[in-house]
Fold Putative CENP-B N-terminal DNA-binding domain-containing protein 4.
Amino acid sequence: MAEAPPNMPPPPAPVLGSAAQRQIKKRKTLTYAEKLEVVKQIDGSKSKRAVTLTYIINDSTIRGIYKMKYHIV
C-alpha cells in the first residue's frame, strides 16, 4: 500500500452503524379528524405536552398543528 504524502489530512473516521443496522422510526401521519381532535383538546385546556404524550408524536408536530388550526377547523 502506498503511503500518503505528509501534508495530506488523515482519512475520515468510519461511520458507526449503517441505516440498515439502525432502527429507523416509522413516520406517523395524523388524519384530519385526529388533527381536529388535537386542536379541540388544546383549546379545551389540555396542555400541548399532554396531547403529545397521548398521540406519541413530537412536540413540534403538535405546535405546528395548533399553529395551523384556522386551516384545519
About this structure: The mean pLDDT is 84. Residues 6 and 48 are 57 Å apart (CA to CA). The chain is about 45% helix and 0% strand. Helices lie at 32-43, 48-55, 59-67, 69-72.
